[in-house]
Amino acid sequence: MIPGLRTTTALGLVAGLLAAPAFAGMEEARQFLDEEIGDLSVLSREEQEQEMQWFVDAAEPFAGMNVNVVSETITTHEYESQVLAPAFTAITGINVTHDLIGEGDVVEKLQTQMQSGENIYDAYVNDSDLIGTHWRYQQARSLTDWMANEGADVTSPTLDLEDFIGLQFTTGPDGDLYQLPDQQFANLYWFRHDWFTDPEIMAEFEEEYGYELGVPVNWSAYEDIAEFFTGREIDGQQVYGNMDYGKKDPSLGWRFTDAWMSMAGMGDKGEPNGLPVDEWGIRVNEASQPTGSCMARGGATNSPAAVYAIEKYVDWLKNYAPPAAAGMTFSEAGPVPAQGNIAQQMFMYTTFVPSLVEEGLPIMNEDGTPKWRLAPSPHGAYWEEGMKVGYQDVGSWTILKSTPEDRAKAAWLYAQFVTSKTVDTKKSHVGLTFIRESTIDHESFTERAPKLGGLVEFYRSPDRVRWSPTGTNVPDYPRLAQLWWQNIGDASSGAKSAQEALDALCEQQEQVLERLERAGIQGELGPKLNEEQDPEYWLSQPGAPKPKLENEDPEPETITYEDLIQSWQQG
């Protein structure tokens, strides 16, 4: 919870709205603006009221309708479900139930609706990682067509698509927009800035390793820093030099498909995703048809760079993270650095930042500034300039074609309400998951930036666009994603070696690709697998898959945080 933002006033507003008559339109809108939004909007009060008036008028044909939408459980969506949904209902008369469930459950519900044609939810906030799925299956409404045709009467004139920072990730190769961003967060390197700048600690590190302690640029430096801090006692507690998670759970799959492999250097050059081989190790041809995952078909999922990526993860989890981390999931591991005994984390999902800036935490100063900072994650030995550097989650509104038109229209109104310029700045202060350029540039974030450890500086930097979600090489995210956590879990637990686990993973991915190819349900956009041949053929070609390096531990390199921030500010 962000101090001063989620207050009893806001909760009282929601109670008042729920107790109000059916709906009172602008009367309720003005109360909402007075008590919840205030000055935290990029729009003037007059512009806010004009935008709210449009919602009141556009929603009139759907007054009394019950609409069901769903998203994963993170702070941003809790705010939408608990505050914005009741406000929208009171203002428009459309009764919105905004369910919060696990991310894996969201994907499962979406997959079930796509397979059965039964309307389970009227709209989903699902990751743009599914853009390859939506583009190929054509079961999600093209928002480009929707806004120009059937949905034109319920598309806000102040939506301002150009203000959204993530549309490139929700647009298919055909140029159509399939999803509207609702929240975004990146994976960034997290570290204890107070320890990294402590003169005694710095001197001791330089004496032991021969170079300056700073933000690691490569994995060699990260490993040295992890080794240096692990087992030390600072502020009366034992410190660990790494934090991660390893439980065999769906979230373990995201840990690796969320750009870990590209950070290691497994795929090809290309932004927002490696081409022709992406961060899943899937190769595509010039027609964007997936042609393989294993090295024998030109893929890289079981390549030397992929094995290196998994072996480093397992080694660091075992040697430098708290013992309990191996049995944790994504949601359990995220808040652990707030306890004050973690020196660094290779990548921190910034959706956890709200839980890391609460008053009274051992990682916070008395003046409300953090003792920690965020920076770009270091890259592995196989990484080359021009490759993807990290992951950015883009949870986006998606409306399937199986949803009846009237319900789709009502849900689309709600989706636009919770992403509108009227509410987005306030919502972003609560969840810190930026989607609009205007919000990022708002003066309130200039004021708050010193208390967010580099998050605002990152989102204002030109580097921001280099962090990206899963791209269009992945033809069926729900089916393929579940293979990752099951196989990586075998490596994490020690049941299989990294090579054995990745061999099994790439073979299973190709089995899915083969079934899709035989079924022909994705038409000319679906997989068309290459013939198998000696992997050495592909290893001798430029790009991925790449042959094993003689030296997987290059010279360590660090940079000061201050120099990094200056480079961001200079562009």
Structure summarized in a few sentences:
This protein is of the alpha+beta class.
Characteristic key phrases:
single chain; two-stranded antiparallel sheet; 13 strands; 43% helix; D-Maltodextrin-Binding Protein, domain 2; disordered N terminus; alpha+beta; 571 residues; seven-stranded mixed sheet; globular
What does this structure look like?
The chain is α+β, with helices and mostly antiparallel strands and 571 residues long. The protein has three domains: 10-183 and 395-463, D-Maltodextrin-Binding Protein, domain 2 (3-Layer(aba) Sandwich); 186-244 and 309-378, D-Maltodextrin-Binding Protein, domain 2, CATH 3.40.190; 250-307 and 470-539, no CATH class. Helices cover 43% and strands 11% of the residues. It contains 24 helices and 13 strands. The chain has helices at residues 8-19, 26-37, 45-59, 75-92, 103-116, 131-137, 143-148, 193-196, 199-209, 219-229, 250-257, 260-264, 304-320, 330-333, 353-356, 405-418, 421-431, 437-440, 443-448, 455-460, 477-493, 498-519, 535-539, 561-570; strands spanning 66-72, 95-101, 123-127, 180-192, 215-216, 233-234, 237-238, 283-284, 290-292, 344-349, 372-375, 392-398, 558-559. Strands 1, 2, 3, 4, 10, 11 and 12 form a seven-stranded mixed sheet that branches. Strands 5-13 form a two-stranded antiparallel sheet. Strands 6-7 form a two-stranded antiparallel sheet. Helix 4 (75-92) links the parallel strand 1 and strand 2 (95-101). The longest helix is centred in the last third of the chain and has 22 residues, at 498-519.
